[in-house]
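Quick one before lunch.
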Amino acid sequence: MNDKFLQATNFIKSISSTKPKIGIVLGSGLGVFVEQIENKTVISYNDIPFFKKTTVEGHEGKLILGKVAGIEVAVMQGRLHAYEGLPMEEVVFPVRLLAYLGIETLILTNAAGGVNLNFKPGDLVLIQDHINLMGQNPLIGLNDNSMGPRFPDMSNAYNSELNDIMKAAFLSLGHQIQEGVYAGVLGPTYETPAEIKMIRTLGGDMVGMSTVPEAIAANHMGIKVCGVSCITNMGAGIVKQTLKHEDIKDVAAKVMVHFTALLTESIKKIGQL
Ligand code: HPA
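Model of the hypoxanthine complex:
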């Protein structure tokens, strides 16, 4: 482990004895999930050595360790994005830190624009796969062989076994299952209508400005990944609308009850693996 991660993990271990099995990254407006966590230790990103601050409204900037459904978890409430001007290495620092804290599974969540015309705002969609349209990759540069291989396999990037568990969790809660391919863009502009058409043509079902770098970094380190998108709006040009971050946070807030139930049930099932 390099010195940055050693200092950061030592700091966290000096505050909390939680040994997280599952890591969770909460997307825009989805931070309320942290109310589910028992025996909480809350650590501000500002206090963790080498951790960059998040600058985005709706992203809290706290690492929370504790238990959900009896399973030890580490939850990132708020994430870092490349559009904040951070190098990819900084964007994936939190996920790598979770890996060094010992997680085996990472659940990524995000707010996303619906590209598939069968989706509607408020839908929760299981991420089947991604398309990296960011023009960047967090593994560019010298490879740290202690973390993972130079050319990581991405053919099961969103783990099919975990996806089956998530589907079972959806079903057991009486929800319809939606699945889709997440197209990751750099942002911070929302897409043009032409870009949304392009993404649909390329096979994307939803679009967002996160998740892809984190999924790459976690797969690189051998962590099993799964993800859920909350469709907060239809992509540009599909319906008459002007996209605003405030509205996106509001839609995410409205699905919190479903989202929380799904995540809690999934954690319970994944924790039994
Ligand atoms: N585009 C990109 N990112 C997003 C969107 C969108 O329409 N909605 C929420 N995050």
